[in-house]
Amino acid sequence: MLICRAENPHLRAKSLEDTWKLAVQYVPIVSLKMSSSNNSNHITEGDNVYLECTARANPRPSKFFWFKQGIQLEQDTSAGVFVSEQSLVLLNVIRNGSGEYKCAAQNDEGKATSNPVNLQVRYPPACISLKNNQVFVVLEKETVELTCEVNSSPPPKHFVWWFNNSKEYMDIDPKYYKSRGSTSTFLYTPSAEEDYGVVSCLAFNTAGLQDEPCSFILAAPTLPTKLQNCSVLNRSVTTLQVECQEGFDGGITQVFHMEVLELPSMNVLSNVTSNISLLVTNLPERARAHYLLILYASNAKGRSAISTLHTVFSHIRLTESHTPRSLSPRLGFFVTIGGLLTASICAVLAAACRHRTHNNRPTNNSVDSSELDDTYTAAPMIEYSRQFALELGPRDNPDLRNGDNIEEMEMFAVSDVLRIRGNRDFNDVPSNYTISVVDCGVTARGADIAASHGPNVHESHI
């Protein structure tokens, strides 16, 4: 307000004046404080908190706003948050209510924000969930570090540790653990079976004692479980690749093993150890087709039960190399005549063999294990290099039938190539497959396959 006044010194008590009210408009000046009913240093979880916002402004503020951590607050009665123009009420405040609060006022001249008020809600310690009920598999005489980490406001003043199992309860002397801030660590070494159990810790601060302890379960390791679903992924005469589904490791690191035994001699051909359940081994180049695979896992406690896998290779090649040479027409004529004579003799022998095999064929799905050597008949080719192969296929394969153009028949013994003893390994073999010797150098229909095994043999089976 402006006042203009005039006085005459000769006229006492006489003066003239005029007034003019000056209306200055300005942005609000805002102030925030906690109610006198609250002690800002002793707000505990569950208390009611009252904040008051005041503003001086011209014109008067038309609207007030409330903020927590820079985010505007809205009324939420279910969460106990009540917002009015110049007050904020937090009923049964929780630990998440801690933070920086501000208010703001707005009039026609603008908007202004108050000073911040930091609300610190005190609450007792609580174990961090990720650190609770952990399981530690520990060997005897092995030391494990247990870390008790809590969340609290203010930080905890003290920790206590104890051990218990089904037989005893024991407090742990503070000299055996170290505490700093919100963390306490304890080194524990089980030395006997009764040292396994549950180790727990509790913390407390000025807001109270921790409700639920942080617990650590100490368990002794066990043997790994048996490997499952083992199968041959890749195999050849000289390479074998097997994959299994690993089981429980017993709580400690496990490794995987594969032993390859030659049947029927049971000689160990290979012993492989791997950190993964994919095992690869090289096999010696020899004419053996039947292997027993022993697969298992092991850890520091011992080894698991074994899984076995029988593998039969159905295609085994023998190569007989000759020095290249040319045949004269005369020599070719004699070879042809000799071949026809030999073919006639072999045809008679083959018919006799088939008749005997038909009469003595086993009635069950077993592989013939007689004391006689298995003899196979095939039609070789007249070429510089001769190759024979054991083939696995259906009985009625048209490529294995007798043909018309038999140039030469030759008896070929393969007992050194594949000798399968007994029927204990092939109980599930379908009856429409045979193992036969086929000359790889000529068309198979020109061959008279005189020998075959009655039952079929899977390439691999468990």
UniProtKB/TrEMBL annotation:
Pfam families reported in the protein's UniProt record: Ig_3
Residue stretches making up the Ig-like domain: 28-118, 125-217
Membrane-spanning parts: 331-352
Keyword annotations: Membrane, Transmembrane, Transmembrane helix
Record has Membrane as a keyword: yes
Domain of life per record: Eukaryota
UniProt entry tagged with the keyword Membrane: yes
The protein's name: Ig-like domain-containing protein
Organism: Pieris brassicae (White butterfly)
